[in-house]
Design goal:
With about 130 residues, this protein is an alpha+beta fold. About 30% of the residues lie in helices and about 25% in strands. It is built from 5 helices and 6 strands, in the order H-H-E-E-H-E-H-E-H-E-E. A 6-stranded mixed beta sheet has the order 1-2-5-6-3-4. The longest helix has 11 residues, at about 85-95.
Length: about 130
């Protein structure tokens, strides 16, 4: 039987050494609203978000009942406020429903939020 080649050739270590040090980007890390637990919308309103994502059933219920619905595209870089009309909410739900909590990309995660004056928010964040 032929002898197997040695797996300890050091190829991976040599490849890593050839890369050199990583370049500094100079930018600071800015967490998404869901990661930070705080969302400040376009009107300057602050919303405190829950730590854990909602399941699809709770998100669907809150989509209909929330005072404000915001979708955060690109991990919250672009915030889109959804209108209060039933057809606006249904269209928004149709957009996110199939990807809510899934492993397919893009992923949507839903979070409950509250304002200082007690209004309810549904925040749906898109991530990759």
């Amino acid at each position: 039987m032929p002898k197997k080649p040695s797996r300890r050739s050091g190829g991976f270590a040599r490849m890593l050494q050839s890369l050199g040090p990583a370049e500094e980007t100079g930018g600071e890390f800015v967490p998404s609203p869901a990661t930070a637990g705080l969302l400040v919308d376009g009107d300057g309103e602050a919303w405190v978000l829950t730590k854990h994502p909602l399941d699809a059933r709770m998100a669907r219920r809150l989509m209909r009942r929330a005072d404000v619905v915001i979708i955060g595209d690109g991990a919250g870089d672009v915030l889109r406020r959804v209108g209060t009309a039933a057809q606006d909410r249904e269209a928004a739900w149709a957009e996110v429903e199939d990807r809510l909590g899934r492993e397919d990309h893009p992923i949507y995660s839903a979070f409950r939020g509250r304002s200082e004056d007690g209004r309810r928010l549904l925040y749906v964040e898109q991530s990759c």
